[in-house]
């Protein structure tokens, strides 16, 4: 049985109405709202579509709802790019381009904006740090016995640690230490930096060597290990309560339990394809997401694949609108972070 043009139009109408109302769609509704024939003709076509696996027939209703197969066909062949409203664009640019100097903070804010606009649960994954490289190290004195160790990576990750010194250090000693550490660690991946022994490079400055070995090194190693950790930010978890799919408290509870397995979910998101990726229902590797759709996109910094941003929600989703918002946000993460580093181009 072929998918004729009429069948495709009826299927698209069912998807549009069900996405909007969350109610099964009947032939009379399609006949009334779309010029696609009489209710009897449409009913026959809908029966064919059900037989072909594109529609399902809930027991409690005479109407039909789209299947996962229907949503996949829609995403692959019917979906058109949606232009964001001026208000949505302003919301994104106003939030992202405000005073933020660290990539992690920017990404966390992007997740919040995404959940706010789509009314879905949003996630943002910070860079996979294995290939991230150190850019520079700094030591900032707070008082005689305390300094702040600052590590900055190429991806924009900034980590700070307060270091308690065994004895006071002069500004010159701290300057020598920071300069030496930057020289030796700059350009090294975080994993490589953990394995590097630079104590021998302090041969000309015994005081700096002792300061590094006794006070700085332990905090430096701990901070590097923290930087290697991938952060997963979630926002809008309670948005599901506004969706009829989660009126059932048990179903809502199951949705929340997904995110109790944060490490596992993080790995699943990291493993998603680069670029825009849409997985629907059973296409998701995780069985707990069998009733959900996931839309993700990759954001870049300095032309490198860096992290992921996206949403998790019911399969009844406005795929065109949500995809457009995700794309626009990931494009602007790159630009917003570049501006925080001193790019004065106009927005």
Keywords:
elongated; alpha+beta; 3-stranded antiparallel beta sheet; 347 residues; 18% strand; 5-stranded antiparallel beta sheet
Structural class: alpha+beta
What does the radius of gyration come to? Answer: 26 Å
H-E order:
HHHEEHHHEEEEHHHEHHEEEH
Oligomer: single chain
Strand percentage lies at 15-25%
Q: Roughly what is the average pLDDT, rounded to an integer? A: 86
Strand numbers in spatial order across the main sheet: 7-3-10-9-8
**N- to C-terminal separation?**
51 Å
State the low-pLDDT regions, or none: 343-347
Instruction: Tell me the number of strands.
Output: 10
How many individual helices? 12
- Shape descriptor reads elongated
Main sheet specs: 5 strands, antiparallel
Helix content: 40-55%
Can you offer a commentary on this structure?
The protein has 347 residues and is an alpha+beta fold. Helices cover 46% and strands 18% of the residues. The protein has a five-stranded antiparallel beta sheet. A three-stranded antiparallel beta sheet has the order 4-5-6. A two-stranded antiparallel sheet has the order 1-2. Strand 4 and strand 5 form a beta hairpin. The C terminus is likely disordered.
